[in-house]
Protein 1
Amino acid sequence: MKELRNSVCIVGVDESDELGTLPHKSMLTLHLEAVRNAVRDAGLKISDVDGIFTAGQHSPATIGEALGITPRYVDGTTVGGCSFIIMVGHALVALHHGLCDVAVVCHGESGRSGVGVTPRRDTALPGQYEAPFGFGGASTLFGMITTRHMHEHGTTLEQWAQVAVSTRQWAALNPKAKNREPITIADVLNSRPVCYPFNLLNICLVTDAGGAVVLTRADRAKDCAKKPVYVRGAGEATEHVMLTQMKSLTFSEATRMSGAKAFTMAGVTHKDFNHLMFYDAFTSGPPIMLESLGFCKPGEGVHFFDDGKSTPGGSLPINTNGGGLSYTHSGMYGIFPIIEAARQLRGECGPRQVPNCKVSLVNGMGGMLSAAGTLVLSSEK
Amino acid sequence: MELERPLPQPITPEAKPYWEGLREQKLMLPRCRACRRAFFYPRVICPHCHAADIEWFQSSGRGRLYSFEIGYQSFNKAFKVKPPFVLAMVELDEGPRMMSNLIGIEPDPKKIRCDMPVEVVFEKQTDEITLPFFRPAGGTR
Ligand SMILES: [Zn+2]
């Protein structure tokens, strides 16, 4: 596993031309824009791409066809929003073994406007065991995790709200973020109740967006346009899909396993990170991920958001793009924290740049902490 | 009568004893003959020991409220129950957890607590479908 460490680099990252509410753009357009922009960021051409990794409604074959290329390696692992994080690990292995030379991990989703979207998914299990009771949408499931966490650990609504406040402070510094006005804990607590324990500002945005990440082997990365970002470690795991099957609602076994694998491959410990990117579909997500990854004891994750530690100028910045809570969240958010981590490690984030950012963590969930993907990214070998 | 809830379509063959039981006001659960452990949702392989030797038994219908939410809006076009309503995850005394609604209590987070004892109540929806809801169980257990 250690031979994979630093063998591959992220050489290009970008979003679609626009993010937000885009009823004039189809899912495919958002997807192709992101690929074109990320390949250009790498200083490469679309014809250089020979590996396609994508999740969700688009098969990698659709993207290869639409780009007009014939990839020799494809992966369509779809285990929820973290699929793209997991696919960086899959691309790492494929590139390392020469199964492809230029890999694109890519995403496009018309999550808000639903343009060019044909939903299809097996609904037999939720249809029988969840929907009749009013479940539908992620907040009616992640809320269960959150309520139980409050019961077991005494976590408060104010502490969850602090995550939204911190993340919004970063969004204020990101011109691409959808919601940039500062908010307070009271604003979160007084926002519209949606599904207890969540008010509106505890829940991510729903946007139209695309994103893509280009990877190649480290020897070839030197010839690309930008400073390479090394993939030091990658991990993945899945635990459940139906929430009733999760062993403990307050601790993600998939996240623990995924993180342990990535940290071992990377040869890092929790203290080595300058910057953390978490999949924040809900305010309670990042604290529970911190706990499951072993950054702290169960119940203590919210303290990473105390006293400005996670905010601009703080000692351990978290979700510096403004997160799914305030920047963008198309539905499968996982590509976007990778893009932000690469930009921070390159040092190109302007007013939101984390000083001396050398080692960055990307950790995401699929479903309700059902699947997990973890990356350790680094500016140096 | 207009339906208030989205009802299962399809009922999967491996879950038939569950839905047939509900029609007779019984909460039936699958149990593994090899390791004797109950599980839910129904499937053909035991999730505990992976044996494929399954029997059915009637649950006590008693358990505890493992977690809950209060829905302040509908999250599904076909769900027409007037909010607020309580979404519940129940852990049955026999072990398995299932989703349901908690009824017979004010939908107020101050009045509901995790681990409170609950018991099943059956509500017929159509000739084919009866759903299991849960209500607070009185007394100490
Ligand atoms: Zn068994």
Protein 2
Amino acid sequence: MDQKGFGMTMTQEPILTARGLVKRYGRVTALDNADFDLYPGEILAVIGDNGAGKSSLIKAISGAAVPDEGEIRLEGKPVAFKSPMEAREAGIETVYQNLALSPALSIADNMFLGREIRKPGFLGDWLRMLDRPAMEKRARDKLTELGLMTIQNISQAVETLSGGQRQGVAVARAAAFGSRVVIMDEPTAALGVKESRRVLELILDVKKRGLPIVLISHNMPHVFEVADRIHIHRLGRRLCVIDPKQYTMSDAVAFMTGAKVPPEAALAA
Amino acid sequence: MAQAQEFEKVLSSSDTSVAAFDEHKSAVKRIQHFLHSTPAAVPLIVLVLAIIVFGITIGGRFFSSYTLTLILQQIAIIGILGAAQTLVILTAGIDLSIGVIMVISAVIMGNCAVSYGMPSVLAVAIGLAAGAACGLLNGVLVAYMKLPPFIVTLGTWNIVMATNFIYSANETIRDTDVDTQAPLLHLFALSFKVGTAVLTLGVIATVVLVLILWYVLNHTAWGRHVYAVGDDQEAAKLSGIQTKKVLMTVYTLAGLIAAFAAWVSIGRNGSISPSAAVTDYNLQAITATVIGGISLFGGRGSILGTLFGAMIVGVVSMGLNMLGADPQWKVLLTGVLIIGAVAVDQWIRKVSA
Ligand SMILES: Nc1ncnc2c1ncn2[C@@H]1O[C@H](COP(=O)(O)OP(=O)(O)OP(=O)(O)O)[C@@H](O)[C@H]1O
Ligand SMILES: [Mg+2]
């Protein structure tokens, strides 16, 4: 496969791009002129050291943090999300590193937080009554379909779940609602071997549905297994993008940690 | 499918049953789970126990429907203020100003109707709007200026209290004046006798208000958002909830409910006295809320618990009163109940986690 091509992806227009993103937290510069490109239907892995700015990057493109500078385009059109809600409405669904679940609320309530289903007719229109049975059924179907976990009761509080089960709920929520882009910030960090495998299969399923996925992970075998391209983040910016078929895991780690300088061809434009 | 790594190959022969929605639990687990998912259960049990204990020690006199309904009349106002306080505490905030918001709203209603001779309906509407406006001020300061609720409402408490005294010149509006010129203000004093039970419209309004709020908190999206914001504001925001809007509506609604309590209080007291602003309504409302099992850390508890909490305080003070005990015993017992309620709250959460 040729260097620039990375298969077919490069011949298409990117669905999501960012140019020159800057995000400062006081004196810390979390994003320092970061660029980002995501192509339709691909799995893009984002790797980098702790504190490299990966989470800051996805927060900026998912509306959770407003960048100080830079431009984001979705399908070519500039967007400026002021809240995660706006990004969600544009079809970008995110699993945040800290999961963003409400511990005291039930699994079903969490999955539908901010996009609740109301009962049809008078009850829903006038009394604003939630359609609990419908939400619970869909939540249950989703979780069963994903086969992520053994759950006792769909109406149990999220705080009574294990860390891995919580992660499963967050992943299921994103996979169920994403319509344009799904972003996952370390979705397998707390998962067991079996559950991690399920999440990887789920990521491939989402890809099969035609959705592009951004996967942030420190697990190199997982990254090399599923990614079409690997975005290496270093010191707040994109260092390079590599094709996992042309480089080894140790190359990637060397680039990421600064032990080796990536070749011209892989360097970000 | 992706190529599994070597050590993952064994997964193909692993247990493939997934998402089994297992409903079987041991009895103890069931109780723990029940208490966790039914936060109003503990105050209800305490309430029933308190009624039984005083019923046994005092005898039939206490059990009479007259006494029990009298308790309800006494706790109506604290019940309503407690409901307002519950909304705020569910968002992990606190509202120190609702007591004085109630008093100034009552004074405004009274002045509009009696001193300025406005139609009573208009006077009530202006009073309700004034309460909501005070709440809105709290809400804007908390949600948009990001100031701590304790400080904001400590400030508005003082501001509203002083405004109340300056505006009213500390003049009481007499019962008879309200009766002749604006009987609508005494609406909630209307009472019905069912046997020896005496129910006022104020008592009924309290219960209905709490039931409505219970419905809103548990069966509408806004209610779920109130819990989510109090639970973990950052997570709520990342989940797409407009946390500022939720906070602002909560404080505004609390102010409006406090003004409604004002209307009910005019019915109960007859006259309208600005000096009521020095009464510790706030603390009584917070007490009812805490005894009712609402967590001060936000996001947990049922508003029904607040009503039970107010009733517990009412039952204890009536019971001790009938026993002829020193009133300080009531204060002491309230303190014990508060600490007990918080301890139970922590315990339930620990066993369920
Ligand atoms: N809310 C914040 N306030 C202050 N500093 C922050 C904040 N968020 C991130 N930072 C800083 O920005 C830098 C990048 O953080 P970020 O979370 O994006 O890293 P990361 O690549 O996701 O790391 P990890 O692999 O540990 O998840 C860090 O130095 C961090 O301290
Ligand atoms: Mg991170």
